[in-house]
Amino acid sequence: MGRIVVALMLREMATTYGKSAGGYIWAVLEPVLGIALLSLIFSLSVHRPGLGTNFPLFYATGFLPFVMYNDLSGKVASSIRFSRPFMAYPSVTFLDALAARAILNALTHCAIITLVMTGIYMIFELPVDVRIGAVVESLIMVTALGLGIGTLNCYLITAFPIWERAWSILTRPLFLISGLFFTYDMLPAAGQAILWYNPLIHCVGMMRHGFYPTYEAEYVSMGYVLGLSLVLAFFGLLLLFRKYRDLMEG
């Protein structure tokens, strides 16, 4: 299984990011440009970000986990469609396809986050006071959530192609309600009671807890995010194991 997963990862690296470094350069530049645009827009309308005084750092700690989740869940969801030609071989299963896309994209985004955050600290000469443990916990939460939702959507999108479009429409508000532009503590009590159930706001809160030494983020529940991710992954895998042959024939 290890050799198959590595082979699928190498194939995706060649097809998604190209055979040169250019593809990976763009993978880094895309979030950098997004953070720069957000920082410029909000710096013109507000005097200070939600935490600290540095706009790029504040928006990077929200934008990067969100992009990682969004890309990871989308890539995992399309695993069967992406690797279908290779599944004609008995030794290649949907588990290999899921694992290959999850591992490659998780590692890619972890590297991107490391590069972008290091660049922000160097360019703006910010004092380095980072809780590495909290940052790692946030990355674990994002990866688990992306894998759980992606696994369930892998079945739904393959079985019902219209679900991909419907899911895209249903989740568009996540960009606005996942704490990218604000902190959970800035919300009124009624808003906190509702948005607490958005797992992404926990992932973003934990990331900011890691980069802001005075931000405690007591509302964050790693158990809630991991538990939800596990339940979604379980039902996704259950459906795939039961319906895998029908999906491939269809």
Describe this structure as you would to a colleague.
It contains eleven helices and no strands. The protein has 250 residues and is mostly helical. It has one domain (2-249). Helix 5 (94-123) packs antiparallel against helix 6 (132-159) and helix 6 runs antiparallel to helix 10 (199-211). The longest helix has 30 residues, at 94-123. The chain is globular. The model has no long low-confidence stretch (mean pLDDT 91).
Describe the secondary structure blueprint for this structure:
Blueprint: H1 2-16, H2 22-45, H3 55-77, H4 79-83, H5 94-123, H6 132-159, H7 162-170, H8 174-177, H9 189-195, H10 199-211, H11 222-249
Helix pairs in contact: 1-5, 2-3, 3-5, 3-6, 3-10, 5-6, 6-10, 6-11, 10-11
Membrane topology: Multi-pass membrane protein
InterPro entries: ABC2_TM (IPR013525), ABC2_TM_bact-type (IPR047817), ABC_2_transport (IPR000412)
Protein name: Transport permease protein
